[in-house]
Amino acid sequence: MRDFSVGMNTSKESSASTFNGYAALGLLVVAVAAVFWSIVSFDAATSGPVHGFALILGGIAALLILPGFFMIQPNQGRVITLFGAYRGTDRTTGLRWIWPWMGRTKVSVRANNVHSERVKINDLRGNPVEIACNVVWRVADTAQAVFDVDDYREFVNIQIEAALRTVGARHPYDDMSEEDETTLRGSADVINAELQAELNDRLKVAGIVVDEAGLTHLAYAPEIAGAMLRRQQAEAVIAARAKLVLGAVSMVQMALDKLSADGIVNLDDERRAAMVSNLMVVLVGDRDTQPVVNTGTLYQ
To answer: In this structure, are residues 150 and 206 in contact, taking their beta carbons and an 8 Å threshold?
Structure first.
């Protein structure tokens, strides 16, 4: 387990104090109306200081209120700062308002889907393989995503490649031995779960959670693909031959037992061996056999 937070202050998301934007919009309408009334009804002869105060206060209020509006859509948040200091995150959807001198950074907390580039790595046995994955991730802590890493999206892309290399190097591409071990090709569920855990461990410093991760491409590198294909074909032929031989031996045994049990013919050891040889050739051979009719005795 790695801990990227050693030596730095880890941020933590908290709720920000913002205001209802519709209430602020009502105040803005009042301020604009006061300014408009002051201008329309102004008369140098009859107007008193009320018009001047209404014009000044209405203008200042409008200038303060207007820049403070912002909109938050579903599954979005705004990180609020005051002169560089974190003041919380607002996740309340709709029209919101805050003092105009406070900073607002928009952060999406929606699920993101990333398909990585193909990466060439060496598996546990040193064979070069090409591997790629698909990752579904989202921001869980907006403060960490904004303040603890420089660019959290680029950080995710780099860590995906690093996690692919780490997980791919832990296991062989395929099982070349008789042992039942985890392989990249034959243990998809295990590899995907391990990749997801590796990514969550790497991305927790940025406040990011991986909901799903899985391999989308897995193949030997082109320089060894031909040799590995021939090896797989040889293994398939060997497995088929082994199964065929086992079946042929069972059939020969059944035939000899049946002949002896029914008393059809009694064979000595030499003739039994010859019959076994002939039956095995017929059952295991790749080509059709040509029968030979024996017109003499059994021993000629």
So the answer is: no
